[in-house]
Structure prediction request, 444 residues.
Amino acid sequence: MPNSDLFRLHEALEDVEEQHSYERFGLRANPFPPDGLAPDDNLLPSSPETLDAIGEFVRQFLRTRKYRGMVVLGTYGTGKTHTLKLIREQLQESGLPLKAIYLITPSYEPYQILRGILRELGQGEVIKMLWNVVMEDLTAKYDKEGVDFFGQFEPRVQSRTTRGRTSAAVTSQPPLFTRRLLAPASLGDYRTFLEAFDRDSLSRDALREYIVSIFKDKITPDLSIAGEFASMLIHDQYQAFASWESLTVPGRNRTLFKPDGEPILLLALMQVLKANGIQYLIILVDEFEGISLMKRMTRRDAVHYLYTLRMLIDRAWDEHPFAFVLASTRQAWDTAKGDLYEAFSDRVAEELELPRLNNEQTRQMMINYLDTARNSDEARGTLSPFDDDFFTVVGQERRNTPRQLVRLCYQLIERAVENGSDRIDASFLREYVPTITPDPEKDE
Prediction:
């Protein structure tokens, strides 16, 4: 007998669907996530004080073009992730020549910051930016030297002389191939360019050497980084991906990422951004308490991590306008400042303490979530199925943070559906709220 028949799963599913019908509330589903984590959509309202502080930080950074560092502080569930994503969203929509990179605490090694930046940009975007650097040089050289410029890429073959000795000879190609190579359609996309390059039987190895020389002059003096960048452009899928992995996949044994070498990749990346018209870089690092509370590493490793981040900041801020924003609990940040490595905290001097939710923010946040699951527009902008009694019956200690509030609302809607209630009013709240116990470890 199939397992589905044995356990009567279809009947169980029908029972669940009937029991958990949200239609009576005018909802398609429970709009509150059970874990209370922040969604990608901007549903959490920020306080005016928080918005003003963020705005001033960003304005000063853009105006001065100098390094700035800030830490967003709050207990678990106060909206630190939301705040970082809000900063990223506002910057991305500004139309300014900048890149805002959002990262979650990058594992055990400080070089994960660099790899996280590359992964966030994506292999396709990095290749596109690298190709723009190459294309500019190719066009300039061709404008100066004409069709003779491409002679350096013609393959050399072994030919015999009249005396029987072998010598290297260049295969002859009609000059018309250069017209195809430099057609706007070919230059605009590296894959199209390489297809034309291959049709004329030119040497990719020679092209790779040429591209490495470009990157060495314009991006980085480090030949290993220049070589990996060039391989990402020149080679086909497998080999190109291998070069991408060498820059982005964790591993302790790569000389490129030893402590003294880690800033080199960051500086190279900044040069790539600069060559593509990106004038500002903002790195947003979430869940920083994973480092300073040593949840994932020893004390020695934590100090090394902070030391390396400090070195990255010190090496980078003179090369490119650069800002660093962390999100952390107060306890973890105080540990980093006092017990682990005070010199790092000097590089992130500005502190933004997130306030607790007030009643106005709580109301707007509940409405934002509920409106995402409305069956019709009639109840949009209201608290339905909640009554205004929510703010008098539910104590502030149970809804201080966005995560507390979202988890509480999720459970209240589930209880109301299970019990066939039509409203979540004062009597319902008095009966069920005391049975919903906050998780002190996550909420306090």
